[in-house]
């Protein structure tokens, strides 16, 4: 018996661009002091996943605290179109956080290229 997981095509250059933009946001997020915790690309990624409700699980404890585990954009079986939609919504949030226009983010992402997670 043989078993295989079939994953959908992923557009690698867009994934690379996403991580570069997360790095850009980590280096340019000083628009709002409340966002000072966004000092690493992984923190930016988690923040964006929370804002876009990319959540794997959510537990509310009796004392009212909430524990959330975000979903993985890297390993979810999203095809090119699904990831493109996620990316488009994410770049809008990145623009809000940094005060940098979507156009400028799109044109300068290569300056912050950091590899794919």
What's the layout of helices and strands?
Blueprint (H helix, E strand, L loop, with lengths): L11 H16 L13 H11 L3 E6 L5 E5 L9 H19 L3 H7 L9
Antiparallel strand pairs: 1-2
Helix pairs in contact: 1-2, 1-3
- The portion of residues assigned to helices is 40-55%
Biggest sheet, spatial arrangement of strands: 1-2
Mean pLDDT: 84
Number of strands: 2
Q: What is the beta-strand fraction?
A: 5-15%
Structural write-up:
A hairpin with a 5-residue loop joins strand 1 and strand 2. The termini are far apart. The mean pLDDT is 84. This protein is mainly α. Helix content is 45%, strand content 9%. Helix 1 packs across helix 2 and helix 1 runs parallel beside helix 3 (80-98). The protein is flat. The protein has a two-stranded antiparallel ribbon with strand order 1-2.
Could you list some keywords that capture this structure?
117 residues; mainly alpha; 4 helices; 9% strand; flat
Quick overview:
It contains 4 helices and 2 strands; from the N terminus they run ααββαα. With 117 residues, the chain is mainly α. The chain has a two-stranded antiparallel ribbon with strand order 1-2.
């Amino acid at each position: 018996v043989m078993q295989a997981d079939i994953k959908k095509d992923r557009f690698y250059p867009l994934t690379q661009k996403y991580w570069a933009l997360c790095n850009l946001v980590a280096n340019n997020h000083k628009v709002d002091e409340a966002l000072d915790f966004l000092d690493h690309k992984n923190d930016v990624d988690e923040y964006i996943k929370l804002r876009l409700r990319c959540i794997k699980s959510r537990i509310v404890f009796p004392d009212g605290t909430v524990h959330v585990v975000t979903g993985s954009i890297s390993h979810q079986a999203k095809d090119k179109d699904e990831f493109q939609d996620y990316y488009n919504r994410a770049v809008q949030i990145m623009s809000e956080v940094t005060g940098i226009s979507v156009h400028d983010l799109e044109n300068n992402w290569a300056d912050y290229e950091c590899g794919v997670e």
